[in-house]
Design goal:
Oligomer: single chain
Bound molecules: fe (ii) ion
Number of helices: 2
CATH class: Mainly Beta
Order of helices and strands: HHEEEEEEEEEEE
CATH architecture: Sandwich
Number of strands: 11
Strand content: 25-35%
Low-confidence stretches: none
CATH superfamily: Jelly Rolls
Number of domains: 1
Largest sheet: 5 strands, antiparallel
Length: 200
Amino acid sequence: MSTASPSDDRFRGYVHKIEQLLEQRAPDKVIIRKLSRATKELCAEGSWLQDDHRVGDPDRYTRHMLHRDPLGRFLVLALVWQPGQETPIHDHSCWGIMGMVENALEEHAYQRLDDGSRPDFCDLTKGRSMDVVQGGVSYLLPPHEEIHRIGNTSDKQAISLHVYGRDLDAVNVFDPDTGKVSKLQIRQSDDKADKRPFVV
Ligand SMILES: [Fe+2]
């Protein structure tokens, strides 16, 4: 797994655009709108994504760190999904954008019916489901549009690009049947000594 940033000018321009938006202190809604357009443009043609960031794993979907903002404001990752691989239901507590570089993923959104005051409990209802296809985008926008599940239901490998509006250290994982909410610590490097999962 590589964590070196792609050197392609198109990717560098994309990261620069995110930096500019954040420096303008744009509201999250504006960031999502402008970044959706930029993400569609970047993902319309995916040759900028180098081969070592296209490597998957038969046991779990794979995350490749493409850019980690030195100020901790955002992350850019490429995720590689083999057929049948999927996330649990989770949130991110920040805005996010997903663009499809190769093939398609199925995304299911969820809404909370409870007020979120109990950190270990949720009451979820299923919202929209959509196929995000190559060149298409999807987004996360707290507080009402940030819980989802993503999976590759096709018989081909899929690759997605993800931008998260913070340096993710943990996410919440939801069990809709029991209502249990679990905090999952995640890591952002491929340091093998770090046993936390490099997923979600
Ligand atoms: Fe997610």
